[in-house]
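Example record for the data management plan.
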Amino acid sequence: SCQKNIPQNTPKKKPLLRRVLLILGIFAAIIFGMMSCLAPKIKNVTIDDLDWERTIDIEEVVTHNESDWSLPDDARLQYTKREIQSYKDVLDHYETVTETKTRSVIDHYEEKSSYVDLGNGYFEEQTESVPVYTEETYTEDVEKPVYRKEPVYATKYYYEIDKWTVVDTAKSSGNDQNPSWPEPKLKDGQRTGAEEEHYFVTATYEKKKGKTETGRYEMDFSQWKELKKGEKIELKIDAAGFAEVNQK
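Corresponding structural encoding:
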C-alpha cells in the first residue's frame, strides 16, 4: 500500500520560554548577591577599644487617649462613633473578556508497526496509524464577575486609659571591662522597667594592601569580657554589625 507524505511541522521557536529562563536567571543572581552581602564576614582584626552601656527604663502611670473597636475593661469611655472598619467585595456586574487559551489538536498521523506471535513459529506484521498532536491557540469570550468595595461600618470606642509608660531612662557606660548597672532615682509613683545591656568592640582590620579600616561591633558579654586591647583575633561579623569570635 502507498502512504501519503504529510508535511511535517517546523518546530516553533519558544521566545516566551527563553524570557522566563532569563528572568529566573536574573532573580537567581539577585538572590545570590543578597545572600553574599548578608553572609557573615571573617576578618583578622586588632582590638583597639572595648566599651559598654547599660540602661534601666523608668516608668510611671500616664493617661492615654486611644480608640479601638472594643472597650477595654479598665478604660474610661469618652464617646463612640460609627466608622468604616473594613471593606467587603460585592458583585457589581459581569463583563465579557476575551481570553487566549491552548488545546491539543491532531497534527498528522504516523504509521507504526508491531509484530504478533502466531504461536507456530511465525510472526505477523501489523501496522496502525497513530495520531501526533500539536498545541494550538484560540480565543474565547468569557463572562467575568466585577466586584466593588463596599464599606462595613462598626462602632468605634474613644476612651482614656492609664498605662505604665516609660518616662525616662537611667544609663551607665564606660570604656573598660567593668560594667555596672545604673542606680535610678525614682520619684513617687515611679518604678523600674526593662533593662538592656550592650557590649562593643572597636577593631581595625586590613581592607586593601596598605589600607586599614576600623569598625565598632556589638558582642555577647561572655566573649567580650575575655578580649584584651591590642589582641589580634579572628572575628565573624554579620550584616547587622554583631561580632563573635570565630571558632576554628
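Summary line stored alongside the record: The first strand starts at residue 41 and ends at 68.
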